[in-house]
Design a protein that fits this description.
- This is Neutral metalloproteinase.
- Extracellular zinc metalloprotease.
- One of its GO terms (cellular component) is extracellular region.
- With 317 residues, the chain is α+β, with helices and mostly antiparallel strands.
- It is built from 8 helices and 15 strands.
- It has helices at residues 69-89, 138-151, 160-180, 226-230, 235-247, 261-275, 282-297, 302-313; strands spanning 4-11, 17-25, 28-30, 32-33, 40-44, 54-55, 57-58, 62-63, 101-105, 114-116, 121-123, 188-189, 204-205, 249-251, 254-256.
- Strands 4, 5, 6, 9, 10 and 11 form a 6-stranded mixed sheet that branches. The chain has a 5-stranded mixed sheet with strand order 7-3-2-1-8.
- The chain binds ~{N}-oxidanylbicyclo[2.2.1]heptane-1-carboxamide (L5W), calcium ion (2 copies) and zinc ion (ZN).
- ~{N}-oxidanylbicyclo[2.2.1]heptane-1-carboxamide binds next to α2.
């Protein structure tokens, strides 16, 4: 259909105001952003599980009803995450060829999860107690889109150690995106949508994975079969490593000199897109990160030394 790119405005899940690109047509205003890659499309799942559902259409380009909120954030945060990978890592969408970013909100009924289906993002509304609408958290949106980046690069198999690294990469870039936009940034995951009645808690902490019962050292890794072999559990090892690499600290007696968020982003992005493979384990993750840091900063650089320290601090060699 023919139309023009315009700017819409609305209210997000947390009640905050934001603007985003929409498409003005004879039918009304669609949540289609034609300014990024091959487009960003946000759909209404209408509390069913048929995807993608119907492209979000609004009569007046103002998105301020409670039902609109999940769509406002899915659409806006998809654009912000697109901008993060484009402007910071020179990657044009998850396939580096401008792939359309498709999101469905109001997926299912009180669905307490979000995900990357292999071709689009889906966001549940949450049950209102354990979670609220999942697109309301920038780190979650960037977490999901990073799964797509991973699938189109290292393609880490989603089980056991490769799956834990897959998950950790999503938490790492979810957090780095949150810092990039200075969106109440922290090293917590999902704090904006987790237990709306309880302030200050989160789904996971990268600074201290043990708060969620996850390991912060390789010697404490989960070796069972739950959670695809602990992909959301052993991600704590990579998360703690990244936290230490960015911020520094002493962990189990090992001192790490921090290199800052931006350099962690560069090292992790190069590790993910140039060196990791589908079957990489944590030991190969260390070797890959050392190679990436060596490429970027030189073999005798402080950055390479810090990468080695960070992996040693979580018991990975
Ligand atoms: O880790 C995840 N998926 O692999 C989460 C769990 C809560 C947020 C939505 C989906 C992140
Ligand atoms: Ca409206
Ligand atoms: Ca966060
Ligand atoms: Zn994930």
């Amino acid at each position: 259909i023919s139309g023009t790119v315009v700017t819409g405005s609305g209210t997000g899940v947390l009640g905050d105001s934001k603007t985003f690109k929409t498409f003005s047509t004879a039918d009304g205003y669609y949540m289609f952003d034609g300014t990024r890659g091959n487009g960003i499309y946000t759909y209404d799942g209408r509390n069913q599980t048929r995807i993608p559902g119907s492209l979000w259409l609004d009569a007046d380009n103002r998105f301020n009803t409670s039902y609109d909120r999940a769509a406002v954030d899915a659409h806006t945060y998809a654009a912000w995450t697109y901008d993060y990978f484009r402007n910071v890592h020179n990657r044009n969408s998850y396939d580096n060829a401008g792939a359309e970013l498709v999101s469905t909100v109001h997926y299912g009924r009180s669905y307490n999860n979000a995900g990357w289906t292999g071709s689009q993002m889906i966001y549940g509304d949450g049950d209102g107690y354990n979670f609220r609408a999942f697109s309301g958290s920038l780190d979650v949106v960037a977490h999901e889109l990073t799964h797509a980046v991973t699938d189109f690069s290292a393609d880490l198999i989603y089980q056991n150690e490769s799956g834990a690294i897959n998950e950790s990469m999503s938490d790492i870039f979810g957090t780095l995106t949150e810092y990039h936009f200075n969106n109440n940034p922290d090293w917590l995951m999902g704090e904006d949508i987790y237990t709306p009645g309880t302030p200050g808690d989160a789904l996971r902490s990268m600074a201290d994975p043990t708060l969620a019962g996850d390991p912060d050292h390789y010697s404490k890794r989960y070796t069972g079969t739950q959670d695809n072999g602990g992909v959301h559990i052993n991600s704590g090892i990579g998360n703690k490593m990244a936290y230490l690499l960015a911020n520094g600290g002493t962990h189990y007696g090992v001192k790490v000199t921090g290199i800052g968020n931006d350099k962690v982003g560069k090292v992790m992005y190069r590790t993910l897109t140039q060196y990791l493979t589908p079957t990489s384990n944590y030991s190969h993750f260390r070797a890959s990160a050392v190679r990436a840091a060596t490429d970027l900063y030189g073999a005798s650089s402080a950055e390479v030394a810090s990468v080695k320290q960070a992996f040693s601090a979580v018991g990975v060699y």
